[in-house]
Amino acid sequence: MKKVIRLFLLSLTVFVLGCSEDDDPATPAPEITLEAPEDGFDILITETLLLKPTVKYAEGASYLWRLDGKEVSTDLHYEFKPELLKEYTILLTVMTNAGNAKESVQIKVNPAPSTPPTANSSPYITQIFDYQYAPGQHAQSLAAGKDGTDFIGNTSSYVLLGGWGGYITAGFDHTVANQNSYDFGVYTQPGTGSEPGVVYVMKDLNGDGQPNDGEWYELKGSEFSHQETIRNYEVTYSKPTNASDPVTWQDNQGNSGSLVAGFGSGGATWWWDANATQVTFQGTKLPDSHYNANNNGGQYWTNYPDRFVWGYAENYQGSDHDANLKANLFDISNAVDAQGQPVTLTGIDFIKVQSGVFQVAGWLNEISTEVRGAFDVQLVM
């Protein structure tokens, strides 16, 4: 009888345990639902994207977000703020004692929309971002730190850029559209002798009104393929010990030399109230623009007749020079990248004008681009 009772109790224990295991199954691994378009998100660089996944079986879960492999958050939700125009991969990992789950999403970041002109838009430059005068004959009167505001609006004043590399960067209050012909112009200073400057353009990709996120594209001109044209050129100017001594320079082609000091009314070529002892400029170096046409030992400096046919600032002999507007006109379609390859731009927001010729032409001294503003052709002509 005792054996029967023991057998019955053992059978009852096995039955109870079996029922207990069936009624309390193991906790499953987490499951992630992250709603997204089939091809991923398309957003503007000015936008923010909040990712809010739904996670099942998340008891005791921890979260890890990775942006292109870099850990960026451990919260359940992640706010993505793009910094670059590119495609990003975002990966969410959810971890519990029962297991892990992963879900990824692609995000393509696009440029900010253009800012078309309105009835209140100015046809002219409205803001100066940077102005750097390169060592030259007007340095003493200008001094470093001059803000270049003479380039704003429709003004009769003009901006001196100094020797090779000196530049000014400026912006419109709207996007200048790339039309079928000329799109914007750069006014010349009153004169007749061309001192060509290279013009660059940039699109405001992130929409913040600053030339801080895009690439400067050179506008190709007639001397683009000239054998003496050098892109990615660089010159470092060094301050002399005394004002009467010449500024020395050295470039990235292994060349060096000095500028002419004491030109005109004793002006120095360095801004003597500046703290810098050296200054470096980068850009495109154009071929010489002037030659001495006097064959009798004197000096008669004039422009080469077969150079700078089009595509440069302060270029009076160019086919793009409008004598009525006293300006050179530019086509955004001539933009090229750093490798010299054409780029397609629907419009631009910023321009940069830089002294392009590195030449001391006798009594003229350094060839220095001098300009007095810029304008949107569609709003002026």
Question: Would you kindly provide a written description of the structure presented here, covering whatever features stand out?
Answer:
With 381 residues, this protein is mainly β. The protein folds into two domains: 31-110, Immunoglobulin-like (Sandwich), CATH 2.60.40.10; 127-380, no CATH class. 8% of the residues lie in helices and 35% in strands. The protein is built from three helices and 26 strands. The strands form seven sheets. The chain has a six-stranded antiparallel sheet with strand order 10-12-25-14-15-24, with no helix packed on it. The protein is elongated. The termini are far apart.
Largest sheet: 6 strands, antiparallel
Give the helix level as a range of percent: under 10%
Tally of alpha and pi helices: 3
Q: SSE order in H/E notation?
A: HEEEEEEEEEEHEEEEEEEEEEEEEEEEH
Query: In percent terms, what proportion of residues is strand?
Result: 35-45%
Looking across the biggest beta sheet, what order are the strands in?
Answer: 10-12-25-14-15-24
Mean pLDDT: 88
Class from helix and strand fractions: mainly beta
Low-confidence stretches: 1-24
Number of strands: 26
Terminal Cα span: 117 Å
- Which descriptor suits the 3D outline? elongated
Q: Into how many domains do the coordinates divide?
A: 2
CA radius of gyration is 33 Å
